[in-house]
UniProtKB/TrEMBL annotation:
It comes from the Bacteria. Signal peptide: none annotated. It comes from Caballeronia telluris. This is PROLIN-rich signal peptide protein. It holds the Pfam family DUF3108. Residues 1-31, 79-109, 367-401 are annotated as: Disordered. Residues 82-107 have a biased composition (Pro residues).
């Protein structure tokens, strides 16, 4: 036995004694930290990809300005100006009948050299020339005394020609798929189909067809289908002057010049095409517009000429904004019509009350019918489609400005 029994060394400060339970570790498990880093990296990659896609091939446009000019004129719907029919040319006066010449009696034979008078022209009977002259004089007097047709007053109107229009669609500035506006105008009837792809929901399709009347574009039926939902239809009954809806049993009176939610843009473009100098800042144009269950008055005020950044470059466009329909109305619609596109819409922005912005931005360029498709790539300019874009419709080759 040793003189000095061996003693166990004392544990250092903070070190648990032998046999004592070890306190739990206060640090979070490492696996949660790794998942948080992975999630953060995925979010950062998605955000970077969205920003890159939003900037690729398209410069950003500023949001619509809140201030609008002071209203200087209010234009209400009225008949459009109709060109007077061409005047029929005056009928040529009928020539007076020539009286038959009396047959001469055979002359007695004489002893002389006979002349060959077979080619001699017969003399006009007396009084025939004076009758023809009198007839022509009376016709000239009638044409001079005829009153010219009175000029017909109204809005100057020029409907955009047929074309397939393509637009980049953006939601809060982030690029989505390509939207299209299918527009047909044969001078008597029209058709308009707007297709806007919405991710995870399906396309929003708005269609309108009808005819042209004394007030311009006259819809007969308007329908809208959002994703996989059944379409809601509005019928413009011109005979009974009623708006009939499939979404509600109620009907409403149909006003002259009434439009639907998308034909109103072509009606506005037709009016501006007819008299562009008339739409100065502050000039406001009213429309009666039918939705899928109601009818209300829309007032578009001219803001002014601005620059729109579209695929391929910048273009000048005239900015119109829809004024609030009622007190507290925070839903807003802005449209830019470009003279270089024949006053077709270059940009359309709808701003929801919660701040969500949905945008259509010009992408295609219409070409004259005689111009081959390659000219669109070689000439360039605002809105020229990419040569590598295989989705460009063939109808883009048919212009019309």
């Amino acid at each position: 036995m040793p003189l000095f029994p061996l003693r166990r060394p004392r544990p250092a400060d903070g070190e648990p004694q032998s046999g004592a339970p070890r306190p739990p570790d206060s640090r979070p498990p490492r696996r949660w930290g790794r998942w948080a880093l992975v999630l953060l990296a995925v979010v950062a990659l998605h955000w970077s990809a969205a920003r890159w896609v939003g900037r690729n091939g398209n410069a950003s446009n500023p949001p619509p300005a809140e201030d609008v000019p002071v209203q200087v004129a209010l234009l209400t719907p009225k008949p459009v100006e109709q060109a007077p029919p061409p005047a029929a040319p005056p009928a040529a006066p009928k020539p007076a009948p020539t009286p038959a010449a009396p047959q001469p009696k055979p002359a007695a034979p004489v002893l002389s050299v006979a002349r060959d008078d077979a080619n001699a022209q017969p003399a006009a009977p007396p009084g025939a020339g004076s009758a023809a002259a009198a007839s022509q004089a009376s016709a000239a007097n009638a044409a001079a005394n005829a009153k010219p047709a009175p000029p017909v007053s109204g809005d100057k109107f020029d409907v955009p020609p047929t074309g397939e229009l393509r637009y980049d669609t953006l939601v809060n500035g982030v690029m989505n798929q390509t939207g299209t506006i299918h527009w047909i105008n044969d001078g008597q009837r029209y058709e308009m189909v707007v297709s806007i792809p919405i991710p995870f929901v399906g396309p929003y399709v708005y269609s309108s067809h009808g005819h042209l009347d004394g007030f311009g574009i006259a819809p007969e039926q308007y329908s809208e289908q959002r994703g996989r939902r059944a379409a809601d239809v509005t019928v413009f009954n011109r005979e009974s002057k009623q708006l009939v809806y499939t979404r509600t049993p109620a009907s409403q009176p149909l006003a002259d010049g009434a439009q639907d939610r998308f034909s109103v843009f072509m009606q506005l473009a037709s009016l501006v095409r007819g008299a562009p100098d008339k739409y100065k800042p502050g000039v406001t144009r009213q429309f009666s517009v039918a939705d899928n269950d109601s009818n209300e008055v829309w007032s578009f005020e001219t803001v002014g000429d601005e620059t729109v950044q579209a695929r391929g470059g910048a273009m000048s466009a005239r900015h119109f904004t829809r004024l609030p329909r009622r007190e507290g109305d925070r839903r807003r619609i802005d449209v830019w019509l470009a003279p270089s596109l024949g006053w077709l819409p270059a940009r359309i922005v709808q701003t929801e009350p919660n701040g969500l912005q949905m945008e259509l931005l010009w992408r295609g360029k219409l070409q004259p019918p005689a111009a081959p498709a390659r000219d669109a790539v070689e000439t360039g300019g605002p809105g020229t489609p990419d040569a590598s874009d295989e989705s460009a419709p063939a109808a883009l080759q048919s212009e019309k400005p």
